[in-house]
Amino acid sequence: MGDFIGAVDQGTTSTRFIVFDHDGRPVAKHQLEHEQLLPRAGWVEHNPLEIWDRTQTVIGSALGQAGIASSDLDAIGVTNQRETAIVWDRHTGRPFHNAIVWQDTRTDSIAKALDADGRGDVIRHKAGLPPATYFSAGKVQWMLEHVDGLRAAAERGDALFGTPDSWVVWNLTGGPEGGVHTTDVTNASRTMLMDLTTLDWDDELLGFFGIPRAMLPSISSSSDTTAFGTTTAPRGGAPVPITGVLGDQQAATVGQVCFEPGEAKNTYGTGNFLLLNTGEELVRSSNGLLTTVAYRFGDAKPVYALEGSIAVTGSAVQWLRDQLGIISGASEVETLAASVDDTGGVYFVPAFSGLFAPYWRSDARGAIVGLSRFNTNAHLARATLEAICYQSRDVVDAMAADSGVALTCLKVDGGITANRLCMQLQADVLGVPVSKPVVPETTALGAAYAAGLATGFWSGTDELRTKWAEDERWEPRWSDAQRRDGYAGWQKAVQRTLGWVDVE
Questions:
Q1: Residues facing residue 223 across a β-bridge
Q2: What is the Cα–Cα distance from 36 to 33, expressed in whole angstroms?
Q3: Is 9:450 a contact under the CB 8 Å cutoff?
Q4: Cα torsion for 328, 334, 335, 340, to the nearest 10°?
Q5: What local confidence, expressed as pLDDT, does residue 14 receive?
Q6: What predicted TM-score, i.e. pTM, was given to this entire model?
Q7: Helix, strand or coil, per DSSP, at residue 407
Q8: Of 34, 349, 384, 499, which has the fewest CB atoms closer than 10 Å, so is most exposed?
């Protein structure tokens, strides 16, 4: 048995590889960004070959940094941006098109058509998802309709579809030379193509999108000793088994050891993702949340979750930096926002690609409201942080309505948790404590945990619980009246964003 577990974290803006020891502590990591391709308004793409190149580089660099060989790794886990769709040639490994990213809205008319004729209700019931541009199936349909020769290749079985976990695993295990084409239940549950009860691809759902079954990966448990194959000697080292795969938000749920029903975590990344463990019970949402698979370890029953997905949180801070130029680095937003006591009446609803949970309105667009001549860039910076918190409040309220479980404490992770003002505002807006763990890389950690559980590197979830430790906690400071009035203003601001884009 090796002394370490490695985790590939293939995210929306970057790919990283982290090496963890038996205590779940990172001993080495390397991270590289990849280009965000924006060919036209509402379109977001990545180059899959660039992602694969970055993956190889970060694995080699992290191992070199730690001074260890691949033979020192007991196993590798993989986690990934979930709904991003990649279609490639089985024989050459060349993508037929750039990856279409989860934020992309070009499939709006496909999603609308599904709801217009009742197919949307079938998708909601079987897949636990509303028809939306967010999920992968519409993106695959779009490629089949727009890429020359792709449909014929797909019918022949020459074109493979996968979310980035499948792409990375296929390449790590040999690519055109026998690469393993598989995914896990958590990623499969984000396609609109998997039945949540059978945990298999559903022919009726495939028919809705005209997707040939031959394109699809096999579906495995999230933690499995054989399903994901073995790496072909990375950087000349020894082969390593891949034994864990989880979509990024489910991985963070595992990394935050939310193994009991009622336990919840919120990840602050490009977007925000709040997951509530509902146990082996499949809770269907009537409040705009997603029903999803939280994880499945080995042959055990699947564990389900309710999820609230928010499209724009951390990327709103990037927008202040890259498009408006009012900060030169993301860390500056805290200083700027802290220079004023409140937002001066400003609300910013960053609905750049519509609103996700609990609204699911692709016709919404971003709005800054409540402006007067008094307002400055500091008020906008603070309103941006409050927007992150209010969007999370929308989701928390919906979860309480669906599950009947009131949140008592919110476990948080992701980049924005370094922003202490934002975390304080989150506690203020929710009215419950906010708790951050010592190891902030919970997404990669969750993938490592899934891999290590399969090999016996860790004995079980009880042992993993002992690894979790709190780093920081924020208690609410706002009065009930402040919280009520602030949220009422937010709800008014959200209404101003709706119906901005005419959807065919």
A1: 244, 297
A2: 9
A3: no
A4: 120
A5: 94
A6: 0.88
A7: coil
A8: 499
Which pLDDT does position 404 carry in this prediction?
84
User: What would the mean pLDDT of 173-188 be, rounded to a whole number?
Assistant: 96
Q: Are 129 and 123 in contact (CB under 8 A)?
A: yes
Give the DSSP letter string of 16-69: EEEEE-TTS-EEEEEEEE---B--STT--EE-HHHHHHHHHHHHHHHHHHHT--
Q: How many other C-beta atoms are found inside a 10 Å radius of the C-beta of residue 277?
A: 22
SS3 (DSSP) at 255? helix
CB atoms closer than 10 angstroms to residue 286 = 9
Average pLDDT over residues 74-90: 97
Q: Which two tokens stand for residue 374?
A: 């008094």
* DSSP 8-state code for residue 285: P
Q: Is 228 a residue whose pLDDT tops 60? A: yes
Report the alpha-carbon angle 190-194-196, nearest 5: 90
Could you tell me whether strands 73-80 and 4-10 are parallel, antiparallel, or unpaired per DSSP bridges? Answer: parallel
Torsion of CA 334, 335, 337, 342, to 10 degrees: 120
Q: Which residue has the tokens 């993989």?
A: 78
Outline where DSSP puts E strands in 385-490.
410-413, 434-437, 470-474
Percentage of the chain exceeding pLDDT 90: 81
pLDDT at residue number 234: 53
**DSSP bridge pairs for 265:** 275, 411
Cα–Cα distance measured from residue 76 to residue 232, given in angstroms and rounded to the nearest whole number: 12
Amino acid at 161: F
Residue at token pair 């801070």: 317
Q: Is the Cβ–Cβ distance between 389 and 422 less than 8 Å?
A: yes
**Measuring CA to CA, how many Å separate 90 from each of 82, 181, 429, 445, 452?**
21, 9, 49, 31, 30
Q: Which residues pair with 17 in a beta bridge?
A: 8, 30
